Amino acid sequence: MALAAINDILGTLDWSEINQATLDTLFMLGFAVLFSTIIGIPVGLLLFLTNKGGILQNRLVYSLLSFVVNVLRSIPFIILLIVMIPTTTFLVGTSLGAKGTIPPLVVGAFPFFARLVENSLKEIEKGIFHMAESCGATTWQIIWHILLPEIMPSLVASITVTAIALVSYTAMAGAVGGGGLGDLAIRYGYQRFETEVMITTVVLMVIMVQVIQFLGDFLVKIIRKK
Amino acid sequence: MIKIENLTKAYKAKGKTIKVLDDVSLEVKKGEVYGIIGRSGAGKSTLLKCLNLLEKPDTGNVIVDGIDLAKISKKELRLARQQIGVIFQHFNLLSSKTIFDNVALPLKLQGNHSKEETKAAVDEMLKLVGLTEFAHKYPSSLSGGQKQRVGIARALITKPKLLLSDEATSALDPQTTASILDLLLEINETLGITIVLITHEIEVVRKICDKVAVIDAGKIIEEGKAFDVLMHPKEPLTRKLIIEETSDMYLEQVRHFYKFEKNSGKHILLLSFVGETTYQPILNTIARQTDLDFSILRGELDRIKKMPFGQLLIEFNGDHNSLGKACEIMQGMGVHYEILH
Ligand SMILES: Nc1ncnc2c1ncn2[C@@H]1O[C@H](COP(=O)(O)OP(=O)(O)OP(=O)(O)O)[C@@H](O)[C@H]1O
Ligand SMILES: [Mg+2]
């Protein structure tokens, strides 16, 4: 009977809209993770290397960078979405839809990710730097041949955590016209009281988070196995 | 090989400056195993870091293989460092790389080595340190001694003329320490690599060093052939290091034990024999030519690097005149003695 009820509900849903929303969310998520990683890794590296005792120790650069990262992290995402509208329009031509959500998603996520990268780097034994310098390594070589390989497992774990945080950010972005599953949930669930749609979107997002976590853990395990 | 001249280095901490190295000068000749020993905080690591300019000295010269390291460009310094191998107390292996890749790292950083060249070189090094079967394992599966062997292989892969070691055996148990020291000695002898090693264990100096410098509070307080310094330490601190580290507290105990036996006609002497003198019937000669009686309290045979030596702790019974005569005999036979009581 329960099965029949579920079937009933599923039958009444507008799947084409849900499919489109799912694709939109995955699109936002994919690009947001990609750009957060691309920006977050160098920022995290720079934070670590310019910090006290780092090989590029520079108080000014560190304080400045650290300040910016902290400010960005302290702005609530929903505010960031609104504040960034002009910048977003300048960057991608629109502040609406999946495309218009990516810049604020990246700005919301990369500072968090950069801190995770910085913390992973702090775990590396100081002696490794002595070793690298004794070998006559350049800063680039230290980053490329030593630091990045050494933090690879925690880097993947950090990307996983960031991606999961981004799932809920994309839902929030739906509130201000960002599209995707969050948008659907708000339009149907909140504004039209069509609970089935809302529940379906929530279930889909839960599945998404589970899959991301599973993939992340799986990758970390493979890398750690070595 | 290495010439250090008037090195000074001070750290500023909380407004105070601490002199970590205070006018240090020393010379290490090609092919030597040179030990630097001192207590914790004496400035040993700082001194070693000055040898490849990981620490920049405030004043003084560091001349390695004819090059004044402080006077060359950053790029030249990097090249110079590639000619100096370093091994560390905590190995500093990369956990993300296989043993093979850890050993290959310095070649990779140098660039310009083909894959075949690298493989041949790494295989040769792994064979030298006895870890051929471990090439594709990761450091986490290795014991401390094996990790240090990897560290040594990595330090030698660029065929350096100089190997620096900062407490390379301090994290290892005595047996593993012995095997690593044997390996270092073998490297020194077969490859002719000069080794400068830092330690706080006199045992390390005893086993493999040709020369030794004792450093305390940033100053070299005693320096010379390892054999001479160990057998006849001049400075109280050196003596303390030797006695404490070998747990040879018995000399202290003997002094304590005989403290109240004044004018009893008992004399305690520590006799040291080196090489040939070890085999002379010295005690017999003394007993026959003087009217001293003797009893042996303790004796030991050991070697410093490859030189055998013996030490006897003797109680002589007799008057001062006889004792004087005995001392003359010992001098004549080349036996070193020290009157403890
Ligand atoms: N970067 C630094 N800043 C301030 N003081 C330092 C620094 N590095 C070392 N020191 C100080 O210099 C002194 C000598 O340090 P060093 O590491 O050379 O000693 P060490 O002989 O190697 O000791 P250990 O046997 O404990 O390794 C110590 O008092 C230490 O506190
Ligand atoms: Mg030290």
H and E string of chain A = HHHHHHHHHH
Quote the distance from N terminus to C terminus of chain A.
Answer: 50 Å
**CATH fold field value of the largest domain in chain B:** Rossmann fold
Q: How do the strands line up in the largest sheet of chain B?
A: 6-7-8-3-9-10
- Number of individual domains of chain B: 2
Please report the first level of CATH classification, the CATH class of chain A.
Mainly Alpha
Ions and ligands: adenosine-5'-triphosphate, magnesium ion
Judged by helices, strands and strand pairing, the structural class of chain A is mainly alpha
Q: How would you characterize the largest beta sheet of chain A?
A: none
Backbone shape of chain B: elongated
Separation of the first and last Cα atoms of chain B: 44 Å
User: Oligomerization state of this entry?
Assistant: heterodimer
Can you tell me the CATH class of the largest domain in chain B? Answer: Alpha Beta
How confident overall, as mean pLDDT of chain B?
88
Which regions of chain B contain 5 or more consecutive residues with pLDDT less than 50? none
User: What integer is the average pLDDT of chain A?
Assistant: 90
Rg over CA atoms of chain B: 24 Å
CATH architecture of chain A: Orthogonal Bundle
Determine the most extensive contact between two protein chains.
A-B, 20 and 26 residues
Summary tags:
heterodimer, A: 226 residues, mainly alpha, MetI-like fold, 10 helices, B: 341 residues, alpha/beta, Alpha-Beta Plaits, 6-stranded mixed β-sheet, 12 helices, elongated, binds adenosine-5'-triphosphate, binds magnesium ion
